[in-house]
Each structure stands twice: as structure tokens, then as C-alpha cells.
């Protein structure tokens, strides 16, 4: 028997409390998050449009980058609009099913982002270690299948703990001290046994993150060995430069993720809860905000494509070509 009056096992709605203790500063807190979201949407949509329009970017590396941009847009859109409603209009209520849907999209596309970064590392490995077979190995069908399997992996792994969360009885209130619905924040409100849900959630995080980080580490170890074996310093520098943007994307994605993971489990009594919430939001918003900026600065082909898109002189209408014989005939009849 649990010591809770479980009159309604499934609540009609939850209350997302934002940043507890800083309710008076919610407007100011919202400004950087809103700015980051705008940069994310505009930057990634611009990158998608550029890759679609510019034929020189129709290559495997940029297809994976387009997939990363799409993932970032969906991931941020799943949490930021509701977060801004909390900060701006004090609309803290979210229905139970909407909370589960947000949780599903959040965790699915977070896992997908990690998977896309892993695919991009494999792309760089093939490009540097097998340059002559690059186009033969990474064909368009292979890229499409890899992207779909990455998405499917996230869906298959996330659906079970979403269903486990749905089946739990909730008797500890309905207030979530966070800006969005994540797995453990919701599960902790249950008066039932959440051990299975917690263990499975941890296993999913380790399976996705651990596997992807292992593949990224192996890929860059092989890349480093291949680059060091090059005789020309110029060739080494060129090979390293092709990986710079991707390495930056990996760092800004996994460093906040590890900080959130470890402080959530081992730093509950030493780090204020508001700091946990800030870092959890930065973990989701910082990589999508910086990815288009990093790739725009570090990738020469994207810079050239942007310059061509905005500054190339294109004729307003095509010149009409007239047959010379027709001209002579008209002149003759005159």
C-alpha cells in the first residue's frame, strides 16, 4: 500500500512551473531563449534552402547537414513555444497527453541528433580514408536509409518509456518544476514503482549516446591515423579543416549533455535546481543555435553558396534570340 490518496491515477493536466524561485525574472529569462530560437529557425531554414538550391552542395556531407538542421528545428520547436507561453503569459498548464507527446518528440529527436552526428563522423571517415570510393559508398539511397534508420531507432527506443510513463499512477500532485516535460520529471510525480521506467530511460540514454560516441571516437581515431600518415603538411591541414566544423558541433552537443546527465544524478544537493533547468535548456537550444553559424563560418562551400545566392547578378528576364534570316527578311520587305 502506498501512502497517497490515489483518487485519480491519471491527471487531466500538469503544471509546468518554469524556473522555480525566479518567477519574477521570467520575462528576462525568456529573452535569450527566444533569441536563440529565432536564430535556430532562421539559420537552419536558411541552410536547408541553400543546400536545396545550390547544386554544388548536393553531396553526402551536406545531405547529412540538412538532416541535422531539420532535426534541430523539430527538437527546439517541441519545447520553446510552450516555454515562452509560460514565461510571457503564465500559461503553465499542459494536458497529460500533450505532455507525453512533447516528451516523445523531445527524446526522439534528441537521440536522432546524436545519431546524425555519428553519421557525419562516418561520412568524414569515408571521405578522408577512402576518397576514391566516397561517391560509390555514400550513394543517395544509402544516405536516405541511414537517416531513416536513425529516426526509427529513436522512435522504437522512446515509445516504450513513453508508454511506461502513461501507465503510472500519479498521486504526488501535478506540478513539474521544469520548462518542459521530460521523462524523469514526469515519472517522479508518480506514487507507483518507477524503477523499471528509470532503468529503461537510463539504458536508452546509454545505448544511444554510448553507441554514437563510440562510433564517433573510432571514426576520428582512424581519421587521425590517416591524416598523420600524409606526407604533405598542406594535405594534413586540408584534411583537418574538413572536420573542424563537425568537431565543434560534437563538442557543443555532448559537453552540456554530459554536464546535465551527471549533475542530475550526482549534484542534486550541491547545484541549485534553477541551474539544472538552465543547463537542461541550453543543452537543447545551444547546439541548434550554433550549428548553422559554425558550418557557415568553417565551411568554404557554404560561404561560397551564400555569396552566390545573395550577391550574384541574375538577369531579370531572358534575352529573346531572333533568327538573323528573319531580320533580313523584315528589312527586305521594308
The poorly predicted ranges are 1-5, 315-321, 326-334
| Approximate strand percentage | under 5%
The string of secondary-structure elements, in order, is EHHHEHHHEHHHHHH
What does the largest sheet look like?
Answer: 3 strands, mixed
Oligomer: single chain
* Estimated structural class: mainly alpha
Widest beta sheet: strand line-up: 2-1-3
Number of strands: 3
Give the termini separation.
107 Å
Query: What is the arithmetic mean of pLDDT?
Result: 86
Number of helical segments with 4 or more residues: 12
Instruction: From the alpha carbons, calculate the radius of gyration and give it in angstroms.
Output: 25 Å
Q: Which word captures the global form? A: globular
* Helix-residue proportion: over 70%
Structure characterization notes:
This protein is an all-alpha fold. It starts with 12 loop residues before the first strand and ends with a helix. Helix 4 packs antiparallel against helix 6 (140-167), helix 6 (140-167) runs antiparallel to helix 8 and helix 9 (233-266) packs antiparallel against helix 10 (273-298). The radius of gyration is 25 Å and the shape is globular. The protein has helices at residues 26-53, 60-77, 80-89, 96-129, 134-137, 140-167, 183-187, 195-228, 233-266, 273-298, 300-311, 324-333; strands spanning 13-16, 93-95, 175-176. The chain contains twelve helices and three strands. Strands 2-1-3 form a three-stranded mixed β-sheet.
Amino acid at each position: 500500500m502506498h501512502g497517497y490518496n490515489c483518487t485519480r491515477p491519471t491527471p487531466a493536466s500538469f503544471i509546468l512551473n518554469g524556473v522555480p524561485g525566479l518567477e519574477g525574472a521570467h520575462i528576462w529569462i525568456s529573452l535569450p531563449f527566444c533569441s536563440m530560437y529565432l536564430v535556430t529557425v532562421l539559420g537552419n531554414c536558411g541552410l536547408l534552402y541553400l543546400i536545396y538550391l545550390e547544386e554544388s552542395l548536393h553531396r553526402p556531407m551536406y545531405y547529412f547537414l540538412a538532416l541535422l538542421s531539420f532535426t534541430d528545428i523539430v527538437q527546439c520547436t517541441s519545447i520553446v513555444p510552450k516555454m515562452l507561453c509560460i514565461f510571457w503569459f503564465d500559461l503553465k498548464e499542459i494536458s497529460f497527453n500533450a505532455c507525453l507527446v512533447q516528451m516523445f518528440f523531445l527524446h526522439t529527436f534528441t537521440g536522432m541528433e546524436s545519431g546524425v552526428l555519428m553519421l557525419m563522423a562516418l561520412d568524414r571517415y569515408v571521405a578522408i580514408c577512402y576518397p576514391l570510393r566516397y561517391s560509390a559508398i555514400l550513394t543517395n539511397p544509402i544516405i536516405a536509409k541511414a537517416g531513416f534508420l536513425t529516426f526509427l531507432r529513436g522512435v522504437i527506443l522512446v515509445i516504450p518509456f513513453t508508454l511506461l510513463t502513461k501507465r503510472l499512477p500519479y498521486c504526488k500532485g501535478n506540478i513539474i518544476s521544469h520548462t518542459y516535460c521530460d521523462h524523469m520529471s514526469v515519472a517522479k510525480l508518480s506514487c507507483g514503482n518507477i524503477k523499471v521506467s528509470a532503468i529503461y530511460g537510463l539504458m536508452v540514454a546509454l545505448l544511444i549516446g554510448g553507441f554514437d560516441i563510440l562510433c564517433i571516437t573510432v571514426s576520428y581515431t582512424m581519421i587521425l591515423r590517416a591524416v598523420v600518415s600524409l606526407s604533405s603538411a598542406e594535405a594534413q591541414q586540408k584534411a583537418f579543416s574538413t572536420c573542424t566544423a563537425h568537431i565543434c558541433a560534437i563538442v557543443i552537443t555532448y559537453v552540456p549533455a554530459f554536464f546535465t546527465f551527471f549533475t542530475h544524478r550526482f549534484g542534486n544537493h550541491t547545484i541549485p535546481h534553477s541551474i539544472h533547468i538552465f543547463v537542461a535548456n541550453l543543452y537543447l537550444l545551444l547546439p541548434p543555435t550554433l550549428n548553422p553559424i559554425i558550418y557557415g563560418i568553417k565551411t568554404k562551400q557554404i560561404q561560397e553558396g551564400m555569396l552566390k545566392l545573395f550577391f550574384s547578378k541574375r538577369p531579370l528576364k531572358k534575352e529573346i534570340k531572333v533568327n538573323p534570316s528573319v531580320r533580313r527578311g523584315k528589312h527586305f520587305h521594308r
